[in-house]
């Protein structure tokens, strides 16, 4: 059985079909929803720490009722965790 050649403008296999397929792919891509944008909050630049009792020591530092500002870059992960977990310390995050 012999195959008959297709014409260039044949919608089944010619350039028109290729353009239609490309157009369909573009529509399919545009119809897909975009993934949600997840914004991460900026990391705090410093911790501001006060003590509930008159004096308190934690992570090699002394705290009193006067606020002490500590740059986060100066603290190890363990020291920061210890300070933030201490119920006798009042810790706030400063972004500037």
TrEMBL record:
Region Disordered, annotated ranges: 1-62
Name recorded for this polypeptide: Mu-like prophage FluMu N-terminal domain-containing protein
Biased composition (Basic and acidic residues): 1-10
Listed SUPFAM superfamilies: PriA/YqbF domain
Pro residues composition-biased segments: 33-44
Residue spans of biased composition, Low complexity class: 16-32
Lineage per the UniProt record: Bacteria, Pseudomonadati, Pseudomonadota, Alphaproteobacteria, Hyphomicrobiales
Gene3D superfamilies associated with the record: 3.40.5.80
């Amino acid at each position: 059985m012999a195959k008959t050649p297709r014409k260039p403008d044949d919608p089944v296999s010619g350039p028109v079909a290729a353009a239609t397929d490309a157009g369909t792919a573009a529509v399919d891509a545009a119809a897909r929803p975009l993934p949600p944008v997840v914004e991460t909050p900026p990391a705090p630049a410093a911790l501001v720490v006060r003590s509930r009792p008159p004096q308190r020591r934690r992570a090699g530092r002394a705290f009193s009722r006067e606020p002490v500002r500590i740059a986060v870059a100066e603290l190890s992960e363990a020291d920061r965790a210890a300070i933030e977990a201490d119920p006798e310390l009042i810790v706030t995050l400063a972004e500037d």
